[in-house]
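Q&A log
Question type: sequence-to-structure
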Amino acid sequence: MFIPLSDNDAHVEVLCSRLELGQPVAAVSSLAGGFHHRVWKLPAERGCFVVKQLSPDTDLGDAKTIHHYNVTEAIAAKFAQCGIAAVHALKYQDHYLHLLDNEAYLVYPWTDAVALGDGEVSVHHALAVARLLAKMHEADIEVVGVESKLADATEKADFEMMVHLCKDADPQMAEEINEYRALLCRIAEQYKRALPLLGRRQIVSHGDLDQKNVLWDASDNAVIIDWESAHKMNPTHEVTSVALEWSGITEDFDRNMFSQFVRAYTEAGGTITRDLFEAALHCLLGKWLDWLMYNIGRVVNLEEAKQHDLGEQQISFILPIIVRLDELVPELLDDLSRQSAQPTIPQTKTET
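Response status: OK
Response body:
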């Protein structure tokens, strides 16, 4: 049975003792921001700390799961040693994850940095992230036990089969998907060809550097949190994904911000070649196709009405993004070619 940390004084005492935080000086309180896990504020004699209490559906009996949390925090700690502002959990006897009874915790030092709200992302913030990402890729750190996450591309035949199943479960939704059948089949083929290219070079990096995982301190410096998705990946794939995210690909895409992001990354020492950039774009389209397939599966699931409705909503959200991104591919490739032909411009402290 899941017991919230705020109701478990015994676990609070153990965490404070293990990590030498001193005695608690106030009650543990809930913090906003935990999308899957619970997050708590723990005031103690040595300062304030943030405790992430893993979701009750986490399989704590699985050695791979335990290893994952320990190794991703080790990645964050390694980047911190390289001068990256990375928040990592406190370690006890070579472990970051604390297993107490049937609960698991990660304890972090408190930071006053905050996430950006809706409409607060500026070119300054995006370019700061681009330069930070170039620094991370240049570090090319090594951490024992980190694995690559090369996915299997969605097969065209699998997509065709899911659309066929969708016809019986939701004919209207199947018709909407079928309108883009040729496009989605082409994306599946391009995805399959792109993955081997991106697999040739893999480095350790964050893996989920979107706006919720980058905080900003009082001096507007970036602080990176939530390293749970850290793994080995292709650097061009990551920078392309992050650039699209910070440029608003799911809402109002800012092509100029995207181009500035890519340029800031290369000026800061990152390397992007046209062939890998194109492969990364096709791979990202393939990832959206994977998510589309997952949600078609929700629609096909006739036993859970809530999942069916959620699948419909997500499909209607995903299809326009896929169409928009596919249309952008040649334009973004042209932008990269023009940037490559231009001389490097020295960095300035301000951007407009």
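Response note: The longest strand covers residues 38-44.
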